[in-house]
Structure formats: structure tokens, C-alpha cells
Backbone:
């Protein structure tokens, strides 16, 4: 059978994730040090795992409300109120999803009409452009620049806005650059969103992982665009448990938004997903209520590793800004004369170190490499030694 005629056009047209393609090459190779997968190297803190075990022991194996357990939604609203300084009504303005991944998908499907333009900053998380395409939107990338620490600038955004622009997607701290954005820049972006009546999807999945450059314990303020004047009503705030709480396998996220938006998202969620897994939801309550201390410990550990990796990369001549958040660095490899993919392939072949070519995160990632430093210090040290030897030979 000719399956090219059977697969829906908009699915056939989206590319596979560049990360996945690259890691298929890595699989089966012995002794590779991976700086590739964007996942904490910690297991979920024990008290959170215990809450999931307890939920199972107690026989909590049912569906929940489509929106999520009321108790979890109350915890989320409390946490978001404290952390982001934005208040949401827990029972009508919070939707529990299967990871932020699902939240991105259903938010776009809830807000975008065919042909509407969705603007996002690039390099960006691999799912943004395909998710926009699957929602029949038109993806419009705005390149962010190394000289600005990969933060989005309002004047660059303004150039991308047209009468068809409908949604702006933001992700700070950013995957893959670790970029953060300051309040002044966010205020200018917010003013543009209000002027052009844009809705905002703000993916803040790394927001707890903000680092203090003075070697402190990471008490850096994270500003959400939802907290700026006039923005709560036009923002869908997306967050989840995968990164800061090291809960990727629990598959749990959430969206906070005005009631009509949550209602619209909930319709898609109830027909496609029904609800998020109950044992994950119960564990998430424990994470929100008692997880601050392990999160702070993990953050401090990431910060130490960031400092080490940034120093080593700069010492070996790969310019690398010190990112204010997440657990990625995005060194500039242009002076080696190699394209991102060639650099990554040769690094893998010659030294057994896997890092993701910047182009996996959009065309503007050419000339860069994403290294995830959520791996042990011993492995990081070895990876940096091997990279240094590789760069030295070029
Ligand atoms: N958003 C960003 C920016 C990410 O980096 C990731 C995962 O890497 C996700 C969303 C998906 O997270 P989740 O595990 O909650 O689906």
C-alpha cells in the first residue's frame, strides 16, 4: 500500500524531532557520555514517590475530574499565587494536563484558527513549530541573539506582528539556551501584546531553575508575563512537574488561564486525554506542598554544574554565555568552522560525547550546540576534557 497517500498531509509535512534523529544514532554505541536528553539526573524525591506509592496502596486507581483533582488544583492555585504573584480560581481556572506537552497542544488548538499566525522565539523547544502546524496555524519564528543572551527583544517581535498574528509563545528560562528575560523586556513585550490583541502562551516549565550569579542559592526572582498589568486576561500560563521536581515520568503539567480559555482547553482534553493519571496527581500535591527544600537542593547542584561547564567551554575557546536558568548551555561553535550537525557528529564519532546540534531547535540554532549539564560531575568533567581534545584538534 502507498502509505504516503494515507497519512494526513499536515502530519506528513512536519519533520521528526532533530533530537530524536540524533539520539537514534547514539543508541547502541558503547560508552557514550550523553549531554543530550533534557531531563534531570535526579530521581524524583523520595517523599513524592512515596505519595504515589501510597495512592496506589490506598487503591486510588480511578479517573479523576477532567480538570484534575480539586485538591491538586487548589494546591496549584496556591503555589502559582505565591510563586508567580497571579491569582487563579482553582476550580475553574486551572486545568491539570499530561505534561506541559499536552498543555501546549491543547492551548494552541483552543486558540488558533486555520491560518492564524503564532509567533515564537527561536532557538526554541522542538515541539513548538510542529504543534502550531498540527493546530493548522502558521508558525512565525523570531530569532533571538547571542548578544542579548537569547532574550526576546520587543523591537524584533514588533517586526513579526501582522494582522493575522494571534498568539505569542514565550519560554523563559528557555530550552535550549537557558536564556532568561528581565522585567523591562517583558513589559515592552506585554505592551505589544496588548496593542495587537495577542494571546500569550507562556511556558514556564523551568521557572524554579533560576540561578544567582553571586553563588547564592538561586533566590532570583522569576517574573511571569501573566503577572504584568493587563496580561492575566490574555495569558495561558503553562507549568509542570517534570523539571524542577524531577518528575518527567509522572507526565504531569497544568495550565492556568481565564475560565473561558480553560473551558475550551478542557473540551479537547476531555475527549482526547480524559484526565491525567490519578497517582501522579496525588504525588504532585505532595510535591507542591512539601517539595521546596529538595527543589532548592537540586537547583544549587545544577548551578554548580552550570558554572563548571560554562567556564570549561569558554576556556577551550567555545564562547558560551552563562545562562540564568534551566539546565542547558548553548556554546557558539562557529569559530571551529564546522556546521552544528557536523560538529555534533564528529564529537560523537571521535570522542563519544553526545550533544544536540543547535539546528534541532530551529534554523537559527546553526553555529551552536546544546549541552544539557544535568549529568554527574564526573561525566561532565570527562565530557569537557574530551570536547577540549576534539576542539584542540580542529
Ligand atoms: N516545554 C519545554 C520548554 C520543555 O523543555 C519541555 C521538555 O523538555 C516541555 C515543555 C515538555 O515537558 P513535559 O514533560 O511537562 O511534557
Residues:
Amino acid at each position: 500500500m502507498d502509505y504516503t497517500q494515507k497519512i494526513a498531509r499536515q502530519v506528513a509535512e512536519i519533520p521528526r524531532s532533530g533530537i530524536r534523529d540524533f539520539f537514534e544514532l547514539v543508541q547502541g554505541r558503547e560508552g557514550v557520555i550523553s549531554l543530550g536528553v533534557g531531563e534531570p539526573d535526579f530521581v524524583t524525591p523520595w517523599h513524592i514517590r512515596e505519595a504515589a506509592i501510597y495512592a496506589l496502596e490506598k487503591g486510588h486507581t480511578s479517573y479523576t475530574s477532567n480538570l484534575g483533582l480539586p485538591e491538586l488544583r487548589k494546591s496549584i492555585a496556591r503555589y502559582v499565587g505565591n510563586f508567580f504573584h497571579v491569582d487563579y480560581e482553582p476550580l475553574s481556572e486551572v486545568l491539570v494536563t499530561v505534561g506541559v506537552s499536552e498543555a501546549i497542544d491543547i492551548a494552541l488548538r483552543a486558540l488558533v484558527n486555520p491560518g492564524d499566525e503564532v509567533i515564537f522565539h527561536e532557538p526554541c523547544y522542538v515541539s513548538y513549530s510542529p504543534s502550531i502546524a498540527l493546530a493548522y496555524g502558521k508558525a512565525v519564528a523570531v530569532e533571538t541573539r547571542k548578544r542579548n543572551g537569547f532574550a526576546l527583544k520587543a523591537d524584533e517581535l514588533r517586526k513579526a506582528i501582522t494582522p493575522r498574528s494571534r498568539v505569542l509563545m514565550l519560554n523563559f528560562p528557555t530550552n535550549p539556551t537557558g536564556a532568561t528575560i528581565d522585567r523591562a523586556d517583558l513589559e515592552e513585550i506585554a505592551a505589544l501584546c496588548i496593542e495587537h490583541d495577542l494571546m500569550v502562551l507562556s511556558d514556564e516549565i523551568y521557572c524554579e531553575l533560576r540561578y544567582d550569579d553571586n553563588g547564592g542559592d538561586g533566590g532570583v526572582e522569576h517574573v511571569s508575563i501573566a503577572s504584568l498589568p493587563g496580561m492575566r486576561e490574555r495569558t495561558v500560563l503553562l507549568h509542570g512537574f517534570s523539571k524542577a521536581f524531577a518528575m518527567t515520568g509522572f507526565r504531569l503539567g497544568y495550565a492556568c488561564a481565564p475560565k473561558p480559555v480553560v473551558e475550551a482547553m478542557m473540551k479537547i482534553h476531555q475527549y482526547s486525554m480524559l484526565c491525567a493519571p490519578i497517582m501522579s496527581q496525588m504525588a504532585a500535591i505532595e510535591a507542591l506542598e512539601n517539595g521546596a527544600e529538595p527543589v532548592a537542593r537540586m537547583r544549587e547542584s545544577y548551578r554548580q554544574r552550570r558554572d563548571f561547564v560554562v567556564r570549561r567551554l569558554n576556556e577551550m575557546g567555545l564562547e558560551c554565555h552563562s545562562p540564568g536558568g534551566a539546565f542547558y548551555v548553548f556554546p557558539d561553535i562557529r569559530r571551529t568552522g564546522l556546521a552544528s550537525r557536523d560538529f555534533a557528529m564528529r564529537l560523537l564519532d571521535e570522542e563519544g560525547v553526545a550533544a544536540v546540534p543547535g539546528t534541532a531547535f530551529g534554523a537559527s540554532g546553526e553555529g551552536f550546540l546544546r549541552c544539557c549539564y544535568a549529568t554527574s560531575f564526573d561525566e561532565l568533567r570527562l565530557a569537557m576534557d574530551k570536547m577540549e581534545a576534539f576542539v584542540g584538534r580542529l
